[in-house]
Amino acid sequence: MSTDKHDLSKEIENDIGLRSKRKLLTIVSLILLAIQFSGASVVEANTFILKLSFSHQNGLAFLLLISVIFLLVRYYSYARKYHEKLFKLWSSRMLKEPFFHSYDIEEDGEHGLLVEIAEKEFNLDIYIIRHSANQNISWEYKHGFLFKRYISYDVSTDYEFYPNQKISLNNRISLKEFFKILRYETKYQIASFIAHPEDLDVYTPYLLGLSALLSYVFNDKLQILLKTYLV
After folding, report:
1. What is the pTM of this model?
2. Each residue of 139-190: pLDDT tens digit?
3. 32 touches 68 (CB < 8 A)
4. What phi and psi values does residue 79 have, to the nearest 5 degrees?
C-alpha cells in the first residue's frame, strides 16, 4: 500500500498537464475570490501582445466566472484518472476495519461483512481459500450512483472462477449497518485529506473553483454577511 501511495504521489507530481491546469484554475479562482470578497479591481493585465486596462469590473468578474467554469472542466479531464486511484487507497484502508474484515487468531478464522457476503454469495469457505496454494480471493469497495455501494470480488478456486463480481450492499445489509458504512467513509475520507498530501493536490483546485463560483452567484448575500460581521 505504501508503495502504491508513493507511486501515485510521484505520478501526480510528474503530470505536467495536470500541474498546468491546476495552476491556472487556482490563480483565476483566487482572483475572482479577491474581487468578490474585497471589492478589489484589476486595473490592467499584461499579455504576450499588449497591455489591457479594465473599466467595467462587473464584466471582468463575469469573464473570470466563465474562465473558472471552463478551467474546472479542463482540470477534471486531467484529474479524473486520479479520482479512482485515490478512492481505492482510502477505501482499502477502510476495509481493514473489523466491521468489514477481521482475523481471529484463536479460532484461526476470518470474520466481518466481507467474509459473510462472500461465503453466502459464492457458497465458499474463506478459510479454505486462504490456505490453499491454488485458490485466492480479493475484494474492493465501489461507489455507485448516489448512495449505491458495492463490493467487487475476485474469487478463484480449483473448480470455479468469479472475476469482478459486483455485489450490492444496499440489498444485503440493514439500514443501521449502511449508516455505519457511511460513517466509516466520512472518517477515512477526512483522514485521507489530512494525512495524505496527494488528496489535497488533486481536490483543492475543485474547492477553490467552486468557492469562486459561489462567491459570484451569491455575491449580494456575501456582501451583507461581510458588512454584518467584518465592518
Report:
1. 0.76
2. 999 998 888 999 999 888 777 777 888 999 988 889 999 999 999 999 999 9
3. yes
4. -90, -15
